[in-house]
Amino acid sequence: MTSPSNSFDDGPFLVVDDLSVRFPTSDGVVSAVSNLSYEVELGKTLGIVGESGSGKSVSSMAILGLHDRRSTELSGSIRVGGDEILGKGEEAMRALRGNDVAMIFQDALAALHPYFRIGKQLTEAYLAHHPSASKRDAEKRAIEMLDRVGIPQPDMRFKDYPHQFSGGMRQRVMIAMALINDPKLVIADEPTTALDVTVQAQILDLLQDLQREFNSAIILITHDLGVVAEFADDVMVMYGGRAVEKGPAKDILVRPEMPYTWGLLSSIPDVEADTNAKLIPIAGNPPSLLNLPSGCSFHPRCPHTGKVPGNLCSTELPELLPARSGPTHFKRCHLADPEAVYREEVLPEIAPDLLEEDR
Amino acid sequence: MTDQSTGGLPAEEQREAVSNGEAKTSAESLENLIDDSHSAAMFDPSKKPVLTVTDLKMHFPVKSSGLLRRTVGHVKAVDGVSFELREGQSLGLVGESGCGKSTTGRLITRLYDPTEGSIEFEGRDLAKLSQRQLKPRRRDIQMIFQDPYSSLNPRHTVGAIVGAPMVIHGTVPKKQVLKKVQELLEVVGLNPEHYNRYPNEFSGGQRQRIGIARSLALQPKVLVADEPVSALDVSIQAQVINLLQDIQKEFGIAFLFIAHDLAIVRHFSPEIAVMYLGKIVEIGDRESIYKNAHHPYTQALLSAVPDIKQAQTGGRRERIRLEGDVPSPVNPPSGCHFRTRCPIAKEICSVVEPPLLQIDQRHKVACHFASEVGHAPERPVTAPLLGVDEYGAPDPGASPAEIPGDGPGYADTWYDLANNTRGRA
Amino acid sequence: MWAYVVRRCLVGVALIMALTLITFALFFASPVDPARFACGKNCSAEQRDVTRAALGYDKPFVVQWAGYLKGLAVGRDFPLDAEQRAAAPDQVTHCAAPCLGYSHLDSKTVNEMVADALPITASLAIVALVMWLIGGVLFGILAAIHQGSLIDRGVVGGTLVIYAFPSFAIAVFLLQYVAVKWGIVPLPRYTEIADGGLWAWFSNLLLPALTLALLYLAGYVRMTRAFVLESLSEDYIRTAKAKGLKSRTVVFKHALRAALTPLVTMTGLDFASLLGGAIITERVFTYHGLGMLTVDANNSSDLAVLVGIVLLAGMIVIIANIVVDVLYAYIDPRVKVA
Amino acid sequence: MRSKLRRIGAAAAAAGLGLSLAACGGSGSDDASGGDAEGSKGGTLHYLLNAPIESADPQRVYYGFQLASWRRTLYRGLVAFPMDKDEKAGNTPVADLATDTGTPNEDASSWEFTIKDGVKWEDGSDITCEDFRYGASRVFANDVITGGPNYTLSYLDVPQKDGKPTYPGPYKATPEQQAEFDKAIACDGNKITYNFNKPWADFPLAAAGMMMTDPYKESFDEGPKSEWKVLANGPYKLEGGVWDKNKGGTMVRNEAYDEKTDDPEKLRLALPDEIVWSVDGSDEASEIINQRLIADSGDDQYAITTGRVPATMLQQVTGAVEERYSNVLSPYVRYLVLNAKSMTNPKVREALKVSTDIDSVIKAQGGDKIGVPAESLVNPVTPGYQDNPAFEGDNAGDVEAAKKLLEESGEKLPYPIQLSYAKSPTNDAAMGALQQKWEAAGFKVTLDGLGDTYYDVISKPDKKSDVMLAGWGNDWPSMMTVMPPLFDSRPNVSATDCNNDYGCYHSDEFNKKLDEAANASDLDAQIKALQESDEILGKDVAYIPLYVEKFNWLRGSKVTGFDVTPASSSYPEIGLIGVQN
Questions:
Q1: Is D touching A (3+ C-beta pairs, cut-off 8 A)?
Q2: Torsion sign (Cα): A351, A352, A355, A357
Q3: Which of A236, C149, C172, D327 has the fewest CB atoms nearer than 10 Å to its CB?
Q4: Per the CB < 8 Å rule, is D143 touching C79?
Q5: Which domain holds residue A161?
Q6: pTM for the whole thing?
Q7: What is the pLDDT of residues C30-71, one digit of tens each?
């Protein structure tokens, strides 16, 4: 098996550069992703955070080449292990999918074929990239993987159908399937959203263990900032198809500089937060990708546009610029001193206790 | 009108006064609300219980596949649940999928017929009423559903959806229905002019608002909110939670708030019940549950919730890891249902079911080894009360004592774990 | 599962009994006098009464129905007139249980008539089924994977055009032009496999089966297309692609497998209700199958045959339903019949 | 199928058409057999049937073409009509199994025949007097042998109760009853005597045209189970002995048949070695069969058919095909019946009659190859036929005369009538044509096209129909099989049913004439009475004749001797037909 890793050394395994994804439809062009850039190193986890319609899943589909080729316009660059994959043919992409790059989907019940035994679905994934392997080898490997992801009696469960597993076990099967070919990059799209908290904890533990063991790069797509806080090394917050803030997880969650990130933080209650703190929702609804607001896409919902001179927010798209907290922290906002606004206006509302600790 | 409907006179009169009196009330009060400074609902023991649920059970029969389709077992979805819901208060019901929290909600709205137990509401046992007798009562207890997409009929206008309960129950004269609908839409933060639009013209959050408006149409005393925000985007969840809080305050509605998200329940409800396999394993006020949980399951749940603050330290916290899955409710483990996954279970747990024991003024827990994390006692705290030895075998020396707090509400005396004595407020 | 099948069968038996009762009731509510037909053209009122009695139509219909049920359970001897049976024992026809009745017009038990007709209709149905399934599924998939393209529109439009023609017109066209005028195939005449071998059986079935298949083809093309499109949009298809499977595998194994479930249901039920379509086809091609038998029996007011066919058709529909359910459980591991 | 029975079954043994063939042969072939090579023995003839036959049992056969063609092949009779094309000769029976055409007593209430020596069943056994008696007795078991003509029931001199014979047929008869019957048909060696309870002057015609008095071998009889079994005594036998209702059968030479006992020249040439009968029971059978005959390929070159060329296909009959085509008069007459219960005013009935546009009806049905105007209910080639004076004259419909009559009637105009008919595209057109003229005259016509239940509906006394379309052909060449079955109110009309007397017509004067005819001891007297009865019907406008149907036949190119005769009911005369070798 040739791996694209020959041609790259130590740099990030995945580099997405200035990626734009557009779907022309009868109603107009949907700008699903605009000028998106990010990278993930082996052994590291990037958390992509955003609401539905923010474009957080779209770029990963492009990495796998799973977008509808007839109706999608792609521009920019995606390099996997140093190899440019944009413009590669279907056969080349197929060789990549499930092999070097694997995906874990959200709802394992829907994402596993209901009519096939999970053993078959696993071996199928193995055989697709090991054409010379025997069926027995594949089965051995599949049982090994089921065992590895913590499914009891894997040789028995091998013959079961997806519906015969509990939600958590099903997600483990998904993970086993994704990891069966030792991928270097795993894209996990809301892997725990449908699960109960205790099961979610189990799955996240498992993912983390596996990452340590295989040193793979992980992209974790989620809307749950708590999950990101515990799991991701880096975070990218997306809104309206663009990255609005990205950087190390700690910087983003502790010293966010973009009002949308503030909004996300303030709109979810915390198990330890003061119950007297009122949830501060983000007003309005997420924008339509068909017709993005001018300037900063967030400006119609942003309570801080008044602090920006003129109507800059609604006329000019802010660039993704380094933030104050560090050189690896970028934000897309016109506010002159967002950190001050956060400390003085946002923090007292959502977490007065935090404020005191900091002082 | 049946005899039953004329029974609860005071309540009827009160409602009449509200609906016929000042139509403006709600709209006006909404404006008041907006300026209202926010504070979380606190547990108020002075309020009278509006709903008292005692030993409620819902056992769904499991039929054999044989020719005669005999009942060979039961899914004990809800298996002896007791609690009180006080006027204008909120009880949060948390637990993982399959624990029976949604079934409990549906039992209270009588979407199911309970197998056993009572649901006392305004002096009447709803569990014993026939569907016909129930009809005039239905308006008092309304439900908000999880899925804002499937719970609204796509072929009806928003006005028809919100107005239907009023028309069916005849609470509002036909001519005033539209006016009332528009008021309600305004209350839930929708444009009142949109009454003739269809649900698909609204976003998920707006649809949930429509559902809420519908549930308010009959001015219920109790609202059962079954995962009201879990289908919504994060930023929208907060909008809806805030709306529900405002409504609760404004109309003094008692909420049974069912959710799997511990943080949201904590935010919304001053009193929380934790369910596991059809039973309440721990119930208490917010402080007791979130700061002083004594049941290993509650502790595990809380520790499993990902915490944003962890970002400061990075990596994952130490947590109580639960192994395996929830067992089948058809054949739950003997004794304590949780023992198969419990980190501190001992022999007694498989023999004797722990009673829901009141251990503080407003805190009950069902565990033989009820304790703070990491401080599990050597011997079961419940043994002396149950008249058994530490392995669960009947202890000829001890005789079973009265279990403190053995009822839907909280007793004045409780069992003090620290001193193994009866405590008192 | 067997318990389920038995239970369903019991319900089915009750249903069939009700069905026969309704058939009896409808038959006697109709203005047609069956005796009038059997009696011939120069028949006086008295003779007609005699004939009516000979046919057994003089008794109250519930009594006749009860007799019929008895025949179903334990068999019956014909003629019904005991005196006649005693006088000429050699003329007695025994109709063993389950006796579907006795046609006085054809002097045969309905069982015999059905036994003659059923293989013909079954042959027709099976060949037609194979034709429309192969055609429908292949064209359906073709259209689905080229959704929105010219191929898609061509396939869907083409089958719609065929669908727009009445079955009758297609049958007559095939017969008059393809067989008679152009002589591309010989005139179809049902040939048993035992008589002419497999090829003769099949080649003779070609045109009538095609007629019948065309009746269903458009529906199956559109259904397959819709089902395959639907399953192609499922999450597990995305998973299959993400695993790096070949698109052929994805479409024909993963997508088609899921689309199969509703197709099997439709096929089972359509197969059971083929009798309706078979009437037209059999009539044009002179295939003396169940369809033709039905029409003839209706035209000659032969109650026994009508009830027998209603019973048989009811049974076929009920059995088909059970088979579909069982098959469904086999195809879809999530479904359990119980 | 009901209507088919009436249509085709009614065609039994019609009167000779030979004369009219020459006169009315239509376009193309004046001589139906023209162009064909002289017939010789051998080969296989294919007979394509456009509908299944109803039975193979002689006592149950009622199909005209079947009676005629099986008389020539399988079942010989006491007497038979010759294959003569002359109307008179063709309608006069000649001896067949009997030595002569029978000897009547003085008032024709008793007939005596002698059975030939050496006539045998296909199993080699002799045909005996007892076989004839047994065959005739089976008709009485009409609860077993259902269907088939049963005139003998009212004629044979057996004890009666309430006008019904008490003899229940051979299966259930007590020895006493059987003894009584054996007196009605008496056997004395080869001599058989039929004793009737009243004169039956045209009995030989009935015996020749029907098979109700044909012999049947008792040991072969299985009652209802014999419906499709054939024990032949003619030049052919049925291969396998059982007719397949849906497929047909193959007739092969009967070795037990001795040509010397027969008169082949007159009765049956029996040219083909084999006759393959195949049934096409589909609705389009006539179209398909005639398409095949036009294509004329393979076995179809040796084929004849019972399927007439549909009017829509007539324009395809040109050139070489026309040489294989015949257009002949049939024994059918189409007529309208007036409901005597609702149309009581004689002036109204008269008005309807004079404004009936027969020409347009024929045109709508397909033109002069399909029918010629009729002047009576009786077919013109029936012995004793005369134009009914009531219907002579203009066939286009006289609107003015009708208007005048209607005005004289004193009825409120327009006079509403409902016209019922068996629905078909051509009938719709034809009835539309009638409607047009009638409405011009002052009627208001509601067209009422009915489906399969047509005859059941119009038989009911309380029907809404005022005028009904019907068709009839005689059972044997006698007006006795026309007027009595159609208009004698006594056997027809009851409280719940008017049977074949669709108009519920009742006239004592007419019934009296029928009794006169029935009791006549010679044919001439009978004919006179019947002619008078038809005049009464005409005077009362009980019916309005429309047209005599014509048949259009195609045949394969290798068929020889194709012709129709009075005896063959205008169907192919199979006794003459052979194939080229």
A1: no
A2: negative
A3: C149
A4: yes
A5: 14-237
A6: 0.75
A7: 777 777 767 766 666 777 777 787 777 888 888 888 888 888
